[in-house]
């Protein structure tokens, strides 16, 4: 039996009591979040959180067993919600730093890197942008008055479906989907998978229709589609003027990322092993060896409370099939 441990520091305040933590990370989200719930009343006295915690404070969350702690989240307090029974501290990762004003500007005939460079300059950050293709070429891109850097990055996220994040050295990163592979983990149905909600699908049988909605250079609504109708629908909303050709390439790229032979869905595990989005997860299934392979982790939700620590791991594109399957 393992003892559950945590270390959580908000600003200069180290938490002594904890009700729960929920951490959500996903390649589909611009912001990674943590929700920390504290008891609002301690020993029959209300906790005066304003003395210790405020918006903008740095946040560090470490979780683990038997004193072996792993850093699960680093970021900032975004807001604090209170009720009679608890305090809820809502936190964001370093994307919190992008919630600052940016000067309006109109780009014409520009690439993602042009807009990204303008955002990095507004933040006084370095830039690492590897998205540079015709499918992410904008005929016109407008940054409106009163917008924040966060708003602009959200537009880029919607258009590219790429990975956008900030590293500790204050570097803004923007990369194509499925190109960032930052770790490896192994899951075995007989060893460390507690539950699963997975479906195995063949690419040839997969019914997926990608619908991309946008606005043309002339201000009129345009639409592009890719894939097969009759099944799942994945919708892309492009919030700036774009050519019909560029919109079609966005739809085609999204279909390529979502269509594959293999598992889709999620598995539930404990805190061990550690995993994050962008990791490669090798799935071992001795009962169905043809389903084995390495999958791209697209999302991880981690919950930690008195009932235990649990991860829900979302699997995306199959990166590598197993040797046994390949030899069939």
Question: SS-based structural class?
Answer: mainly beta
Radius of gyration: 22 Å
Mean pLDDT: 88
Number of helices: 4
The number of distinct β-strands equals 23
Q: Helix coverage percent of residues?
A: 10-25%
Task: Report the principal-axis shape.
Answer: globular
Order of helical and strand elements: EEEEEEEEEEHEEHEEEEEEEHEEEEH
**What can be said about the biggest beta sheet?**
13 strands, mixed
The N- and C-terminal alpha carbons lie at a distance of 41 Å
The percent range for strand residues is: over 45%
- Poorly predicted runs are none
Describe it for me?
With 328 residues, the chain is mainly beta. The chain has 4 helices and 23 strands. Strands 1, 2, 3, 4, 7, 8, 9, 15, 16, 20, 21, 22 and 23 form a 13-stranded mixed sheet that branches. The chain has a 3-stranded mixed sheet with strand order 11-14-13, covered by helices on one side. A hairpin with a 2-residue loop joins strand 1 and strand 2.
């Amino acid at each position: 039996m393992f003892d559950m441990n945590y270390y959580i520091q908000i600003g200069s305040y180290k938490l002594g009591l904890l009700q729960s933590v929920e951490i959500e990370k996903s390649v589909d989200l611009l912001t990674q979040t943590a929700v920390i719930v504290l008891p609002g009343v301690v020993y029959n006295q209300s906790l005066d959180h304003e003395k210790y915690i405020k918006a903008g404070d740095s946040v560090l969350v470490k979780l683990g067993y038997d004193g072996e702690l792993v850093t699960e989240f680093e970021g900032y307090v975004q807001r604090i919600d209170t009720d009679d029974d608890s305090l809820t501290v809502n936190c964001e990762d370093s994307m919190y730093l992008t919630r600052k004003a940016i000067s309006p500007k109109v780009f014409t005939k520009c690439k993602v890197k042009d807009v990204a460079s303008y955002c990095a300059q507004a933040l006084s950050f370095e830039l690492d942008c590897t998205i540079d293709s015709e499918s992410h070429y904008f005929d016109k891109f407008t940054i409106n008055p009163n917008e924040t850097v966060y708003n602009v990055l959200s537009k880029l996220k919607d258009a590219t479906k790429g990975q956008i994040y900030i590293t500790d050295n204050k570097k803004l990163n923007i990369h194509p989907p499925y190109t960032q592979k930052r770790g490896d983990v192994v899951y075995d149905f007989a060893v460390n998978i507690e539950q699963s909600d997975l479906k195995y699908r063949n690419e040839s049988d997969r019914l997926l229709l990608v619908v991309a909605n946008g606005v043309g250079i002339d201000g009129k609504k345009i639409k592009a589609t890719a894939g097969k109708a009759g099944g799942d629908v994945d919708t892309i909303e492009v919030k700036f003027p774009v050519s019909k050709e560029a919109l079609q390439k966005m739809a085609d790229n999204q279909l390529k990322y979502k269509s594959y032979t293999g598992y889709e869905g999620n598995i539930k595990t404990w805190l061990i092993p550690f995993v994050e989005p962008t990791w490669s997860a090798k799935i071992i299934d001795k009962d169905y060896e043809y389903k084995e392979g390495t999958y791209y982790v697209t999302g991880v939700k981690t919950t930690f409370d008195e009932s235990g620590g649990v991860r829900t791991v979302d699997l995306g594109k199959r990166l590598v099939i197993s040797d046994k399957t390949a030899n069939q």
